[in-house]
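Quick start: what a row looks like.
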Amino acid sequence: MRTYANQRMEALAKELAAGLVRLRKGYVDSAEQLLRLIEPDREYPYEFVLFRLTGFRSPSSEEVMISGKALAHDLRQLMLDVCDSFELSAALYDEPVLDTAQLARRMHVSSKTIQRWRRRGLPTRRLVFADGKRRLGFPESTVRWFVQNRRRQVLRSMRFRQMTDEEREEIIRKARRMASMTKCCLSDVARHLSKHTGRAVETIRYTIRKHDADNPGQAVFPYLSAPIADKDKLLIYRSFLRGTPVPELARRHDRTRGSIYRIVNEMRARHLLERPIACMYNPQFDLPNADELILGASRSRESHDQAAAKLSKAPPGLPAYLQSLYRVPLFTPEQERDLFRLYNYLKYKADRIRRGIDLNRVRTSKLKEVEQLLVQATAVKNRIIRANLRLVVSIAKKHLGGSQTLFELISDGNVSLMRAVEKFDYSRGNRFSTYASWAIMRNFARSVPRERYRLDRLATVEEDVLDIAAGLQAYDANGVNLPELRESIDVVLAQLTPRERTILVDHFGLQEARDHKTLEQLSHRLGISKERVRQIEIRALGKLRKILNPQRAELLS
């Protein structure tokens, strides 16, 4: 049996193929008659299909609808499967029956064209002909019906004729002239020649490509046969992401539009394959009904929990930004479990599909599926993080007292929260808040003492950075350890922005073999006004005063 779009139709095909032999020809003919009535954009009840094929009505009260497109596909499959279940003779039909070769000669087309017609809706039977061999058969009435409904396509195929050597040489000559004089790409040349020769664009493109492959020394487009470098592929991909149209990329890189799309898809696939996708695995992910169990349960519980959600009151004294965190409802234990299970399942499913991606034959549908799953997983992760941001605030408030502000502690804690979401195993039965609290506090236990130690070490510098800057070159090398002094200066300057650091170093000459530069010279170098340089310098000096002597800076301010 072949692949069916609808399971009911597949089961029906098996039943008809196992039924009475004397009725099977009638099933096949009825399937074709029904096929002629089907409209792709409509839906049809399964009971209607069953009655048209067998004359019986289903006792089931369940109404199953089948789209017209899927039904047409399944009816053509059903005809072949029922024919394969017994020997149906072509002589049983009261009209001429043609096999593939006969139909191709009669319609003046190739056998491949007949195969394309079958894929586009030509009903087919597998019959036993007079020579005793089983072949595909097409009754005359079937062919007439298809021609009437696909007249434009059939006429186009019938007008096609084999290209002669003289025509092929003329196409290559004109293509070479256009490529050398106008710098057209292959697509432009193919479209232009198609209008003048009446040949299909794909035919022109195929002719040129085949010539270039057979004659590399005389190729019309030699660059098309040469492999494109990885750096050029990356350049094309980045330009595509920035919004450059594909036709423009094709002209810019002397490539066809199809090759640009292939390069873009290849780079998309590479990025997906290189991207780390880690999940907390659970055996439920491999169940046959995992989608229904995990995705369905999450949607149903989400609607219920949203209706029952309660908001918490924000503690007094918090800024408006932090107060907004308390307007996000907390998760119930069941909702939390479902969200973590959904988050990890989406990543597991994306990783499983990603493993089937072949860089040599990239399928856009696979890329889109993986990307959509990762986007959904990120959305779930953001929901979890937003609902637990208040936890970071409460823990950060307990670690105040050092040099770090509340917002700096919250920023540091948010990073720990994001890592905790990745590492939390919901199947152990613990609440995420317990695990996240432990992770955030452990991070604070490392970072807060380290920050205090660093500032204490800086505070032991006896001279203010301004005094060091002004008198550095006046120090006697025999009395002062200049390398150690410069190391201390570098530690202090590391707290500034790159532009602030550049202005202080160049203006005060804080590095060896570097002259003092005036504010005007610095303004020309940085491309800003002299007054702006002075403002940045004052701001940087203020920062250094606070770092080296916080108590004094507060008094001065």
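That is the whole record. The chain has four domains: 7-158, 162-226, 283-452, 461-556. The domain at 283-452 is CATH 1.20.120.1810 (Four Helix Bundle (Hemerythrin (Met), subunit A)).
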